[in-house]
Design brief:
Number of strands: 5
Helix content: 25-40%
Structural class: alpha/beta
Strand order of the largest sheet: 1-2-3-4-5
Radius of gyration: 13 Å
Low-confidence stretches: 1-5
Number of helices: 4
Oligomer: single chain
Mean pLDDT: 92
Length: 121
Amino acid sequence: MEPQSNSFRVEVRRRDSLSVLDLFGDIDGFADAALDAAYSQAETHGTPAIMLNFSQVGYINSTGIALIVGLLARARKNQRRLVTSGLSEHYREIFNITRLSDFMTIFADEESAVQEVVAAA
């Protein structure tokens, strides 16, 4: 059986003018390749925004935060908005402390994100 850290996976889908990355498992160094591939796939949708759905994420370590910062840098470079949904209160606080929340909108749920992003498109 593989260690828990290797069980991270991402599913990519599109909702209106939003590409959604559904994240499952723990976000740590083992998530790098899966996150990168999924983000690249989402970019091909040509949507103005990409959402990271954290509702099925149990743990994010400092390497995982660095991976998210890397995705944010890619999004900003390509003038694409990166938003989040489904963060637990603990990780909302971490995003506030690290100031990630200054650069990406944190939505309580996917519906809120879709409504706001579609209205802004």
